[in-house]
């Protein structure tokens, strides 16, 4: 197959806040039209003279799939934006930045085609300097169709899938300019990306900091970039050593003294700021200091074993589709944190920067995944498909590698990992991930590793990753024991489990399923976490979807109404239990940190007993503390740092 890579001149920028001569929002009102028979190119819809004034008006970010005028449309659509731009200052260049466009995009400025991009969840930039004028027409052609060459997409012919299932993927192809758009003006020599690796010495309490700075159009005669580290706006003294690199790439290394090191974890998500100055350009980005590692069957955060609950959150909300506005995101993440869903393979595709910013600031641990949803062996062996996946994967990694919340990369979900092609894919993409970012763990979500036909560790691709992620729906104890027999020295993360609302007679059936699953998980000390499928119901075309268009797996409904399953999850995955005894007009309340699943050290929690508040400085797994409170209290609450109530208990009078 011939692939046209013309115009793929894209610049990825890192997570961070960049000081530019200007950053002009271009989201807001755009002109919009469907192009179902693909006439836009040949009829010059992209030209400034094209009469788009009678087109519909939409507000970007915009998901045409949920716009009632174009509901669930699949195909080509066009967006046009008119804007003014003053003459660029001398020594500056201009870039268009799209935070996400699903799925394929072609970009024209003033009638000149400047670029194309494929991949629906990550940002891209295009240099538009030469095309700009005082009056500008920006035209964007968007196509959200899928086939066997898109990621995600349809399957090539396989004997293990029905034809109707093989043609679709199980979430809606929400098309449009789903996130913000900016015109960015920056110096000709600018900071293209910054990668920070902060590695704490858990014995000395110091931390080594390695910062790689890539500068576009670098002048070799200029000095290396300057770097300053701040904690809570206080400058931290660091002596930086510069290591020579290739032209335009600089590495700075330094050590933070023990007094300046505060480790990031789920209860104390301490963030630092790094300010990088290269010539006339400045970039500020946040990072955290933490150590994530696997040792045998344990997952360690800062040297301490952790075992946690988590969730999968399909990006789907009524009337918003995959746009994920702040009001929805904040609501969901507060429910996730209050449900102790703190270790999550949260999506099959790259999530928004805003989600990861929240996770950094509030203490969520994320396994970030890109692209490969059930690619077939033929697709995984196809060099073009491998290159497309690597492109989307690298865009995710280079955008997200400074987020302390991201602890691992996943190279796919539910592909045929027992086949030679699946094994080769895993081995190769593991190496690719480590090449991009050797500081993080790598895994993939396997639907094969627990099956009885996998007789040896060499028979399945989980042998190649840092820890095992397994999707399973029932027979949990037997499946987990089988995995452990194959890989006795590997940690296991249950990346999917759960049951649909229509898979049982009533919600109590789902509650019983969860309670039994937890009993099984707690018998397996090699299980480091379990992630429910799913946090929320989501729309789908996949066979087996309900007549209302939703797949009802959620702890919450599409509108985020809490089901009983959510409250049971909250109780089962609370990191501590509460027990009460009454003596006269006094209550004795014992807070006990769980020592099975979940299991981790509690820091700075609070116990609320009626109108009284008790500080719980620290509880290690298996430890307990007892507090005496007034007997008139009718309710207890266990509250995480940040104010998240993770457990409530009523007290009978």
From TrEMBL:
Pfam families named in the record: Glyco_hydro_2, Glyco_hydro_2_C, Glyco_hydro_2_N
Keywords: Glycosidase, Hydrolase, Signal
InterPro entries: Beta-gal/glucu_dom_sf, Galactose-bd-like_sf, GH, GH2_Domain-Containing, Glyco_hydro_2, Glyco_hydro_2_cat, Glyco_hydro_2_N, Ig-like_fold
Domain named Glycoside hydrolase family 2 catalytic: residues: 292-496
Glycoside hydrolase family 2 immunoglobulin-like beta-sandwich domain residues: 195-290
Keyword DNA-binding among UniProt keywords: no
Keyword match Hydrolase: yes
Domain called Glycosyl hydrolases family 2 sugar binding: residue spans: 26-187
SUPFAM superfamilies from the UniProt entry: (Trans)glycosidases (SSF51445), beta-Galactosidase/glucuronidase domain (SSF49303), Galactose-binding domain-like (SSF49785)
Annotated signal peptide: 1-21
Stored PANTHER family: BETA-GALACTOSIDASE, BETA-MANNOSIDASE
Family: Belongs to the glycosyl hydrolase 2 family.
Name under which the protein is recorded: Beta galactosidase jelly roll domain-containing protein
Organism in which the protein naturally occurs: Chryseolinea lacunae
Lineage, opening ranks: Bacteria, Pseudomonadati, Bacteroidota, Cytophagia, Cytophagales
């Amino acid at each position: 197959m011939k692939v046209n890579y013309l115009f793929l001149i894209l610049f990825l920028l890192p997570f961070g806040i960049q000081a530019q001569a200007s950053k002009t929002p271009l989201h807001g009102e755009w002109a919009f039209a469907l192009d179902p028979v693909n006439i836009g190119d040949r009829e010059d819809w992209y030209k400034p003279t094209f009469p788009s004034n009678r087109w519909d008006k939409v507000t970007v970010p915009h998901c045409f799939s949920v716009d009632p005028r174009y509901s669930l449309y699949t195909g080509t659509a066009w967006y046009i934006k008119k804007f003014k731009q003053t003459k660029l200052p001398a020594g500056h260049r201009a870039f268009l930045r799209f935070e996400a466009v699903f799925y394929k995009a072609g970009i024209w400025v003033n009638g000149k085609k400047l670029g194309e991009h494929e991949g629906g969840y990550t940002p891209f930039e295009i240099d538009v300097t030469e095309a700009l004028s005082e009056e500008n027409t920006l035209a964007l052609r968007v196509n959200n169709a899928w086939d066997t060459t898109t990621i995600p997409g349809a399957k090539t012919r396989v004997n293990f899938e029905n034809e109707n299932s093989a043609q679709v993927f199980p979430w809606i192809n929400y098309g449009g300019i789903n996130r913000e758009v900016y015109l960015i003006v920056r110096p000709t020599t600018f900071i293209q990306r910054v990668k920070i690796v902060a590695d704490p010495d858990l014995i000395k309490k110091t931390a080594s900091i390695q910062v790689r700075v890539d500068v576009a159009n670098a002048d070799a005669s200029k000095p290396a970039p300057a770097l300053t580290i701040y904690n809570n706006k206080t400058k931290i003294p660091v002596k930086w050593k510069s290591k020579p690199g290739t032209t335009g790439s600089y590495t700075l290394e330094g050590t933070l003294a023990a007094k300046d090191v505060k480790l990031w974890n789920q209860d104390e998500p301490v963030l630092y700021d790094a300010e990088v100055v290269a010539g006339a350009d400045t970039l500020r980005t946040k990072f955290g200091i933490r150590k994530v590692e696997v040792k045998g069957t344990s997952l360690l955060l800062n040297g301490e074993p952790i075992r946690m609950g988590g969730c999968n959150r399909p990006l789907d909300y009524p009337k918003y589709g995959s746009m994920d506005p702040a009001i929805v995101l904040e609501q969901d993440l507060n429910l996730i944190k209050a449900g102790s869903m703190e270790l999550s393979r949260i999506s099959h595709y790259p999530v928004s920067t805003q989600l990861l910013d929240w996770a950094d600031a509030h203490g969520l641990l994320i396994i970030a995944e890109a692209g490969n949803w059930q690619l077939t062996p033929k697709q995984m062996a196809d060099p073009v498909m491998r290159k497309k996946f690597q492109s989307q994967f690298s865009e995710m990694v280079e955008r997200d590698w400074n987020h302390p919340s991201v602890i691992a990369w996943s190279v796919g979900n539910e592909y045929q990992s027992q086949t030679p092609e699946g094994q080769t894919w895993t081995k190769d993409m593991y190496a690719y991930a480590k090449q991009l970012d050797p500081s993080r763990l790598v895994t993939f979500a396997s639907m094969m590793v627990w099956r009885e036909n996998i007789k040896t560790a060499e028979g399945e691709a989980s042998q190649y990753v840092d820890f095992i992620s397994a999707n399973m729906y029932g027979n949990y104890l037997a499946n987990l024991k089988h995995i452990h027999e194959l890989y006795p020295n590997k940690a296991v993360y249950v990346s999917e489990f759960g049951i649909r609302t229509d898979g049982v007679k009533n919600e109590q059936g789902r509650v019983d399923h969860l309670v039994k699953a937890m009993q099984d998980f707690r018998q397996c000390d090699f299980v480091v976490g379990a992630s429910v499928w799913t946090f929320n119901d989501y729309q789908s075309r996949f066979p087996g979807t309900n007549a209302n268009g939703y797949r009802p797996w959620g702890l919450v409904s599409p509108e985020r109404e809490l089901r009983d399953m959510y409250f049971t999850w909250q109780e089962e995955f609370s990191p501590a239990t509460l027990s009460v005894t009454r003596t006269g007009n006094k209550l004795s309340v014992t807070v006990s940190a769980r020592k099975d699943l979940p299991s981790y050290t509690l820091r700075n929690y609070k116990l609320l007993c009626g109108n009284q508040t008790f500080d719980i400085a620290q509880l290690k797994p298996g430890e307990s503390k007892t507090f005496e409170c007034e007997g008139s209290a009718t309710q207890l609450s266990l509250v995480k740092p940040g104010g998240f109530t993770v457990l409530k208990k009523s007290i009978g009078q």
